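TL;DR need structure tokens for one chain.
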Amino acid sequence: MATTLETPSPAGAAQAPARGGQARKASRRLALLMLSPTFLVLALVVGYPVLSGVRDSLFSQADGLDENGFVIEGERFVGLDNYTALFSGERGEAFWNAFLNTSFFTVTAVVLETLIGVGLALIMHRALRGRALIRASVLVPWAVPTAMSGLLWRWIFQPDGAANALIGQQILWTADGVAAKFAIIIAEVWKTSPFIGLLVLAGLQIIPREVYEAARVDGASAWQQFRLITLPLVKPALVVAVLFRLLDTLRMFDLPFVLIGGNKDSVETLSMLAWTEANNLRYGVASAYATVLFLYIAVIAYTFVKVMGADVLGDAKSKKEGKA
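>> reply
TL;DR here they are.
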């Protein structure tokens, strides 16, 4: 008895991709519907403050007297004057000083945190006796609130504190100078290196042991295994950790404010400068500082994601699935 195989008609073959496209559209609509409460909350707590800050940066608190001798009250529109004032005169000097301090703290701290964090992750990943205790102890600096961490390091960096007793010198760590910069870097690295270490550790734990066993059979050294296996496979977790640390360090405020104090040129950051202007009731200038800092962070984050090739939003996977 002969059997025949039915081949799909051209019309049926054409309808299959159409049905797949409709299913994807329905899935996207459902996803947007379920995410709409989150988008609404983000619009209220993020979008509105950002737009309000941009709006305030275009206004200035009115002061002085009018032609009748009365005090001018309220706000007046000044356009981009608050922004142009950031780059000239005394305000320009303060801005560039804070900008350089912010960039220096970000680059130095993130590089050191990445190196130390990867080292901590490799140590915690090894099958050592007391590994649970090591992991718990590593969490302690990250669990300490930043304000408390600043007070702790302020006590350590006192003229008669533990730091000077350890090195045998009298250094004014909490004064306005280069030593204050190093104090900020040390305290920041001590607190946040465990964050990178924990994220990298999570990436290490999903690497199959068979990969390393095959590399050892092929004669790969420990450095070759780290460079050719470990780093490529933990890159997604490492990139996300470094990105978070970049965003966090660029808006640094609480640690230098508590550890060193305000109005110190050597450690003043853009966030601290915006706070100082707002505290002096110059809300327009403060909003301009905050807006510039927001744009600076956005540019750094976008450039970092593009350069490192990080698929933070999962667009690459969705595009591949769409093409398939």
